[in-house]
């Protein structure tokens, strides 16, 4: 019924002719061929809009470009003609454009009076709902009050620095943790991969030491500039009497700044490669507290757990993300003086909270961060965009409630459910025909797909964001004032730490979400065996629209859905069984077959490059990006099969201005449009170092090269996929 409704507003125009893309090894030409009958043409406003988006994104001379050999330019060559990077942007894409549209809607929400509740709502707690809205507006107002923030200067930062000083290493790390600042090692509470219904304590290497990734410490020019930035910031803080007195004399010397950066470099060199931090096989190492304390005796895990966990909780077990890193840190600390160690802690506070103050003292740091991403050093986003991001981080579920009211209908949620169910059905069919899997593994794989939980739109239990009383209770301990921005941010940081560690000793809450409703993203949670799609990514016209031909939504959102589901069987997700336990449920024959095929992806994507720091080619890390690349390929294949099945039941109409493309080709264009974008050189380099996702152009070229359906649709000379798992 929902599928039929998609065409109820179309004006149907019959066509007797069609333009066909005919490809030869040199170029692609368009020629008329007589075919009859042709599918009807949808002329609704939504279809015209969708059609114009595709036409704008296509290269202006796409009819002279071979889609088989120059895929990205064919599909996205026109994107840059309508988009540009603002001085404050390191990159932009179809995703970021959709996110910015969502931010604009949210601005209209928080800057308007309380909107009230829908008359049809089952909840009638108008007072609680308005209280929540006032808290949201107060948090936004405090962020927008730049005059008050400027008048406060570095005063709030001084108070926090004073609290951190004079403590031993363990107490300092604990105080930093309570304020949302990571240093030396990251302690957190999360589902136990081997027993996901229980919460365990983890300690892992921090994702960022100081500079964005370890490669930057090998760039002498960047390191020297980084030292100059630290010197400028600390000199200004000393002048403002913001640094504790016992550190002012130390920071006044260049040698001290050098020693802090050298300390960071040693920590960075000890850190495992980013692909190890993504692999459960590498990061899941259970130890007793006694055993772990021998690795890093200077940092007491027992003390941190006792300070943060509920009073009735006790454990003798901790998951150590990298034992080698912990042992190396212990040796580094032994050889480093206390002044340098605590100077490093002070600098972590400054880095973490610099964006929460307005003062010339921290300006060099903000300029340096911009420069590392290729932005204008003095640029910053519009203040309202910054503040929408802040309230999404700090009071995200309240913001989600008012976003859903404006941007996500019941029909949209139902359509999402249909697409994802279709994807699951097709993936099960794919598994049944996967001959390199043993019968037993194939059977368990199908069971795992059946068990995957799909969450769409927004949470309805933990918390139920549409229940004002529950939402008010969720944030009751967060104190927000409309004139104390820095204080608000610290209050939220403490709230989040407290909420996380309060889970210890309780069963895992499988109703929680890791992303707020406006988020333009999605994820697969291996221990929860769940795929999650916030409402933010289910928006027209780029990814999702129930009112246009289904190949568009299946090509974009459907491929995203299939991508997340495919993560259940990628290089990391395959280690989790039918209910989300990390265990060896694949036999050796299937593992070997998988690894042989996965190596093809490693090599394929390792051949993609971006201009490096010295303008020499910088290769994509095929091992780091392996899971995402496998998911892209699997997601596209499942989505295409799901759409073809739907199209047989309720055939799609064509789009105006695009009659020379087949529906199969339009599906592929819709997928490719999802990743159109542009990236500054510096931002691209940073992502190569640390991002498990391939560059956007590679996600188009590589994924479509791995699709037999794409090569068939465009009649490519070579039809076999470059790499194939599913």
Task: Provide a brief overview of the structure.
With 726 residues, this protein is of the alpha+beta class.
How would you describe this structure to a colleague?
- The protein has 726 residues and is of the alpha+beta class.
- Among the domains are: 154-356, Neutral endopeptidase , domain2 (Neutral endopeptidase, domain 2, Orthogonal Bundle); 409-458 and 513-713, Collagenase (Catalytic Domain), CATH 3.40.390.10.
- 52% of the residues lie in helices and 9% in strands.
- It contains 32 helices and 15 strands.
- A four-stranded mixed beta sheet has the order 6-7-9-8. The protein has a three-stranded mixed beta sheet with strand order 10-12-11, covered by helices on one side. Strands 1-4 form a two-stranded antiparallel ribbon.
- Helix 5 (94-110) crosses helix 21.
- The longest helix is centred in the last third of the chain and has 24 residues, at 626-649.
- The protein is globular and about 85 Å long.
- The two termini are 31 Å apart.
- Residues 1-36 have low confidence and may be disordered.
- It comes from Lepidopterella palustris CBS 459.81.
- Residues 521-719 form the Peptidase M13 C-terminal domain.
- It holds the Pfam family Peptidase_M13_N.
